[in-house]
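Service request form, structural biology core

Requester: graduate student, group of Dr. S.
Request type: structure prediction, single chain
Budget code: on file
Notes: please return the result as structure tokens.

Sequence provided:
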Amino acid sequence: MEYNKLTDSKNKYINFTIAERSKKVLMPSEHYHDVFEIYYLTKGNCRYFIDDKTYEVKAGDIILIPKGVIHKTMYDDGEMQRKLINCSYHYLPTSIIPKLPLIMYHYRNINIKEEVDDIFIKIEREYTKQDEFSQDALLNLLHLLFYLLVRNENKIDKTEKGNYLVTEVITFLKENYTKDVSLTEIADKLSVSIEHLSRVFKKETGLAFIKYLNMLRFQKAEELLKNNENLSITEIAYKCGFNDSNYFSDKFKKYYGISPLKFKKIGK
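Core staff response, request fulfilled:
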């Protein structure tokens, strides 16, 4: 079952989805959002790469991802089911925002599973109504979910796996993605072979080095396209680390489905 986004005149946004599919049908994907994501795995297992670490996720675990954070899901064999909520920060209680670092990104706490299940069932039920009270009801339910998670953060069992090489690569790219950087340059800095570094990076993140680098650049491009109408596409490409504006436009269109120029017009 899948439900489309619900909006109101104040541009408050929530998108709730339930899906039960096999690994072969639900392909792993890499992306980032301009909203907050709540991912609840109810059946199966997966590995979740978020920012610069990988998490081993099993049924009952919750993944919480702020806007702008690159992530990728890698599913194990077999059936899986997950519940997914993407919402604006309007749906997060103001009082818990300073405490978000305590519960991100991986949340495992079997002690509150029944309560979590109950809240998700109520969210799904309320979301399908979409009547005049839906926005307020969903707001209250999501607030209740966040309060529950924060109040029980001291019992979280985390399973993050940090790889030194991957962390170093990502740290370097975040600081230098607007420059002309290469995997060879980074491998030299870390005193490892390019083949080994490429293999480790792909294994731990599920992403090829160049794809991750381009995603960082696309994030910057989005910002410039939306907020700097006086900049040309060529200027934006160079500011994001692309030496060829045609290459930038081609890759951008493949990722977003529209050209940078159209994206720029839509963003105005």
